[in-house]
Design a protein that fits this description.
alpha+beta, six-stranded antiparallel beta sheet, 7 helices
Length: about 270
């Protein structure tokens, strides 16, 4: 009986182990994940893991202190307002006549002239069909008390040579002299008499430009002084294309202004 009972116990244990082996094994329990809630140590300012990346430093305006951030914001606001006002003034200047331009035309003109004057109008382009060259000559007082008159200097041709081949010509080279002449002709009649309040201003503006050009070009010589200047324009029609039957004159037309006295210090740009 003892041997039989022992064998039965062994067989029952073997059967139990086989049944346990045939039963499916439960998956391992997942590892604990650190709490990411706002109350957890990671979000409450607790020391981060040594392997965590360092935060990137702030750049630009964000790197400034709050006081300087406010100053930068105010400066940007002022610049934005100035740009908007300028664009609005230019738009009203070139726009067709309307209620706003009739009511505030004087304020618009004071903002535009003479630095920002435009020669085009919205919805009515008027391309130039003439080549206009501005020329000047000067009366020089020499060091020995004598006087001499120079030949004609073609200032427009000088600007053209400076622009030719220049990838980024300056605004001065392209428009300063041309716009000064347009300003003068718009405020004077065909007899060179001023017809508006800006007549005297246009004369001063044009005279100072040509005097500065003469001074930079060395027209007065080593010890000479420019006493008077005379300006003229040479207008030549643009030749029509060969396929058209349009006929235009090929002879230049000159408009000669009277002699203007040069104010003391005007060649240095400090005259008022």
């Amino acid at each position: 009986m003892d041997a039989y009972d022992s064998g039965s116990d062994v067989s029952r244990e073997a059967e139990a182990e086989g049944a346990a082996a045939r039963e499916p094994q439960a998956p391992p329990a997942p590892e604990a994940v650190p709490d990411a809630s706002p109350d957890s140590p990671a979000s409450s300012g607790a020391p981060a893991s040594p392997d965590a990346p360092a935060p990137e430093p702030r750049t630009g305006v964000a790197a400034l202190s709050p006081r300087y951030q406010i100053g930068a914001a105010l400066a940007l606001a002022v610049v934005a307002v100035a740009v908007c006002v300028h664009l609005g003034m230019v738009f009203l200047h070139v726009a067709p006549s309307n209620t706003v331009t009739k009511t505030h035309g004087e304020a618009i003109d004071e903002w535009i002239y003479p630095e920002f004057e435009q020669n085009w109008k919205l919805f009515a382009p008027n391309p130039l069909q003439q080549n206009i060259a501005v020329q000047v000559r000067a009366q020089i007082r020499t060091a020995d008390g004598g006087s001499r008159t120079t030949g004609w200097y073609d200032l427009s041709a000088q600007d053209g040579r400076a622009i030719d081949g220049n990838v980024v010509p300056s605004h001065t080279q392209q428009n300063e002299l041309r716009r000064a002449w347009d300003f003068f002709t718009a405020s004077h009649d065909s007899d060179n008499r001023a017809v508006g309040e800006r007549g005297s201003l246009s004369e001063t503006y044009l005279r100072r430009i040509v005097v500065l050009r003469l001074d930079r070009g060395g027209a007065n010589g080593a010890d000479g002084v420019v006493e008077r200047v005379q300006i003229r324009s040479r207008t030549l029609n643009v030749r029509p294309p060969e396929w058209t039957t349009e006929k235009v004159s090929s002879q230049p037309v000159f408009r000669v202004l009277p002699w203007w006295s040069v104010l003391p210090g005007e060649a240095e740009g400090d005259a008022r």
